[in-house]
Amino acid sequence: MGLDAFLTTFNASAIDPRDLEDDAAAGKKFSNKLANDRARIEERLTALLGRRGILRRKVSVPSPVMSEADRQCSAQLGYEALQNLRGLAAHIEFEQNVPSGPSEVNGAVLDEVYAGSVKSRLFTHLIHHADDSGYYVPVGFPTPILEGELSVGSVQVLARELALLYAPLGSPKVWEDETPDDGCPWTSERWAWAIFEWLCRMSAARRLSIAFSG
């Protein structure tokens, strides 16, 4: 399955509670209209955050100006790499050890998290988010929002969770670093980490959302 992650404007407009719809219905509309009505989706995303008390004021956001390197980076996050990174995070949290390579990761742990048998506390925004849709927004809030088919995570919290994986991944390079690889076995996990880390930095610096599209 292909998976793109890209930066998009986060248009936090004024919120009028009288205009808000039911959260579940709004979530379904977010998902259905993602491809052809992004501006309207972002307005409703702002409304949902306002309803939850996460966003209470208007935020002025410039339109993104992305270089070709930015666009290439934004489109490179793959489904398999994302799942591998989540699997490592779940293993570290619940097995309480750092495996030496991908073959030692207990993949059943992530399956248990997805099944609801256990819930991640250290990597909530990395793991508890849709695989191929939804947003990360540059607003800090502790618990991911899962409303119907809509997933919304916090860029700030995701960045902190990625920082917890820096040492276990053997100090991975950031996206801009073009030095040769050091032979670390965590190839796909490092790739996903680098893309996510770059997206988080750009999102925070430019006040842009991260959007998933599968």
Summarize the model shown:
Strand 3 and strand 4 form a beta hairpin. This protein has helices at 23-32, 38-51, 68-74, 79-95, 107-115, 124-127, 155-164, 187-206, and strands at residues 4-9, 135-137, 145-147, 150-154, 208-213.
Describe the structure in your own words:
By secondary structure, the chain is an alpha+beta fold. The chain has one domain (4-213). 43% of the residues lie in helices and 11% in strands. The protein contains 8 helices and 5 strands, in the order E-H-H-H-H-H-H-E-E-E-H-H-E. The chain has helices at residues 23-32, 38-51, 68-74, 79-95, 107-115, 124-127, 155-164, 187-206, and strands at 4-9, 135-137, 145-147, 150-154, 208-213. The chain has a 5-stranded mixed sheet. Strand 3 and strand 4 (150-154) form a beta hairpin. The longest helix has 20 residues, at 187-206.
